[in-house]
Amino acid sequence: MEREEIIKAAQDICKVGAPFVLATVGEDDGPRMRWMGGLYLEEPLIIYMAGGARARKMAQIHRDPLGQLMFQAPDFSKVITLYGNCQVLDDLSIRQKLWEAIPQLSKHMSGPDDPEFGVVRFDTQKIEILALQEGGREPIILEL
Q: What is the pTM of this model?
């Protein structure tokens, strides 16, 4: 696959809207994974996610910004793993975009200005695609 094809394949799976996994570095330097339920995507692969402002993941990101995101195609044909850095943001314009992109946030927060509304920005540095149903045994890797 060419560079643009790899990026597009990753974007397409990220845009599906299915739950995905965010991994951060825990307090004991071990991995900590959790399901996430929605995102806002900027080109090429900057991903914004919502979470509780006082959630453990926020403290973990402040301590160590390394993270991974893992997505799976609905038909199980591909698994996309993104490697990069996370950053906790307090930006009302980004919270407004997330609020509009993820309707289910209204079940957990009162609005984009809710002080409990936390935002994580994920800057992708590497893409790994495992194309399972295409006979892929080795991942396709692209450094950004």
A: 0.92
